[in-house]
Design brief:
This is ABC transporter ATP-binding protein. Residues 6-237 form the ABC transporter domain. It comes from Dechloromonas hankyongensis. The protein is α/β, with parallel strands linked by helices. The protein has one domain: Rossmann fold. The protein has ten helices and ten strands. The chain has a six-stranded mixed sheet with strand order 6-7-8-3-9-10, with helices on both faces. A hairpin with a 2-residue loop joins β1 and β2. The chain is globular, with a radius of gyration of 17 Å. The structure holds adenosine-5'-triphosphate.
């Protein structure tokens, strides 16, 4: 059986008359890590949203575990083991940390329950200290930890992190990377968008660079790291 989790073929996505994605192919298999890279506005979030059914591509196909999901509602991709941590995060501010985590609990696609409340607590000791605080009382970094913790409570096979450390202080960002590395080691496939090229390419085995809604590079993270010109040309500020 193929271990392909998520595939996109020839995706074209528009916002009104603006043509944003120009025929993008993407795929990720069980256990892989992909750094999705590119400057602001190049289409990274739109690609993610197009694959999850949050935005509907005009052309192209999306397959989840080999099944056609091109027209499937977003909640079905979640049921098939794909967890999404959107840019800007998404916790319930009026619920406590505990409630935020508990309400997301569910078993994975094959019934596995690797990620329990206790395991999330072990992974994010800082959340443990805040367990009865309301979501609104958390710092930006703690909110991001809670969002990732909630995603893990769904026992996903694929975790998609958009702007994983955006707006976070360097020390907190380092803590997030430590946790993401730990998650990668457990074999969960991961797609990561972040401006810190060094961090994402060290955590992910593959990298993909978008420029104006087209793939200009797809290869190993090592290739990206060994090629400062590629970084300067497509990712430099
Ligand atoms: N809801 C929307 N309506 C219209 N245009 C949009 C919308 N969302 C994004 N865009 C435009 O689509 C293009 C791609 O945006 P997208 O957010 O996918 O880029 P990105 O690579 O994720 O960058 P960023 O890190 O800035 O989010 C940009 O030109 C952006 O202005």
């Amino acid at each position: 059986m193929s271990n392909m989790l998520l595939e996109a073929k020839e995706l074209h996505t528009y916002y009104g008359a603006s043509h944003i994605l120009h025929g993008i192919d993407f795929n990720i298999r069980q256990g892989e890590g992909i750094a999705l890279m590119g400057r602001n506005g190049m289409g990274k979030s739109t690609l993610i949203k197009s694959m999850l059914g949050i935005v509907r591509p005009k052309h192209g196909r999306v397959l989840v575990r080999g099944d056609d999901f091109s027209k499937a509602p977003t909640y079905r991709t979640a049921q098939r083991g794909i967890a999404y941590v959107p840019e800007g995060r998404g916790i319930f501010p009026n619920l406590s940390v505990r409630e935020n985590l508990q309400m997301s609990a569910r078993c994975g696609v094959d019934g596995q329950r690797n990620w329990t409340f206790d395991r999330v607590m072990e992974t994010f000791p800082r959340l443990g200290e805040r367990i009865n605080n309301g979501g609104w009382q958390l710092s930006g970094g703690e909110q991001q930890m809670l969002t990732i913790g909630r995603a893990l409570m769904t026992n996903p096979d694929l975790l998609i992190l958009d702007e994983a450390t955006e707006g976070l202080a360097p020390l907190i960002a380092m803590e997030i990377w430590r946790i993401v590395k730990q998650i990668r080691k457990t074999g969960i496939a991961t797609v990561i968008v972040d401006k810190n090229h060094g961090a994402v390419t060290s955590i992910c085995d593959r990298a993909m660079i978008l420029v104006k809604g087209e793939v200009v590079f797809s290869g190993s993270s090592d290739e990206v790291r060994a090629n400062p010109e590629l970084i300067q040309k497509h990712l430099g500020v």
